[in-house]
Design goal:
By secondary structure, this protein is of the alpha+beta class. The chain contains one helix and four strands. The strands form two sheets. A two-stranded parallel sheet has the order 1-2. It has a two-stranded antiparallel ribbon with strand order 3-4. Strand 3 and strand 4 form a beta hairpin. The termini are far apart. The model has no long low-confidence stretch (mean pLDDT about 85).
Length: about 70
């Protein structure tokens, strides 16, 4: 299987214990460092990998703001 160019992830860490959460986020970070684009829907910003460059905050079905992650 080829490496994808883009991954769409909906709450990839929901229901995971702390160890598995770190493992999954580590894998996603490695993919991002190799150039795979990640689009992640999360409720908890702690579930974002450091390589995420932009945040799109949505509230009540309306875009609140798009901003670079700092």
């Amino acid at each position: 299987m080829n490496e994808p160019e883009l991954l769409l992830l909906d709450e990839p860490c929901t229901g995971l214990d702390a160890d598995l959460r770190r493992y999954v986020l580590g894998l996603l970070q490695q993919l991002a460092e190799r150039g795979v684009q990640l689009v992640m829907a999360v409720h908890d910003v702690r579930d974002l990998v450091p390589a995420v460059g932009w945040l799109l905050r949505i509230q009540s079905d309306a875009t609140v703001r798009a901003e670079p992650r700092t």
